Amino acid sequence: MDLSQLDFVAVLLAAMSSFMLGGVWYSPWLFQRAWLEGCGLTELDLKATNPKWVFGGGFVLSLFIAFGLSLFLGPHPHLGVSVGVGFAVGLCWVSSALGMSYIYEQRPLKLFLINSGYHILQFTLMGLIFGLWP
Question: Membrane-crossing residues (predicted)?
């Protein structure tokens, strides 16, 4: 795909959706406590981080992810295809790669389910945005 065909507004919106999903997914309302436990972190550890680095870095990486998925889908993808591809990428590529690492690192299954669940939804949501974008 020619980069001139890339819709940078859709990429930005997809990155923002991923970032916002993460804010809800890893919040106290959903999986924060279980995620912290699985990672071996505490709320004090979270408070000790530099939010500019964490959130800024997270958003930049979300932009890279959205950019890559947009290139993979091409211009004006069909809604069903883009959602299906997003789901398949999240499940088959990202979750499987995480799963391999988690097995060797002997990380908890609960942490794998939380993190891979986020990535499956992240890519599916991005696919939805690219499929709906005019």
Answer: 6-26, 53-73, 79-104, 111-133
Rounded to two decimals, what is the model's pTM?
Answer: 0.94
| CB of 125 closer than 8 Å to CB of 25 | no
Candidates 86, 93, 96; CA nearest to 121 is 86
Please enumerate in sequence order all residues whose Cβ is within 8 A of that of 41, keeping only pairs 6 or more positions apart, or say none: none
Is 87 in contact with 116 (CB distance < 8 Å)?
Answer: no
pLDDT in tens, 58-92: 999 999 999 999 999 999 999 999 999 999 999 99
Strands (DSSP E) found in the chain: none
The secondary structure of the chain in percent helix, strand, coil, rounded to multiples of 5, reads 80, 0, 20
Buried b (16+ CB within 10 A) or exposed e, 1-18: eeeeeeeeebbebbbebb
Cβ neighbours of residue 70 closer than 8 Å, sequence gap 6 or more: 6, 7, 10, 11, 14, 130
Instruction: Give the rounded distance of the alpha carbon of 122 from its chain centre.
Output: 4
Give dist(CA 61, CA 79) in Å, integer: 24
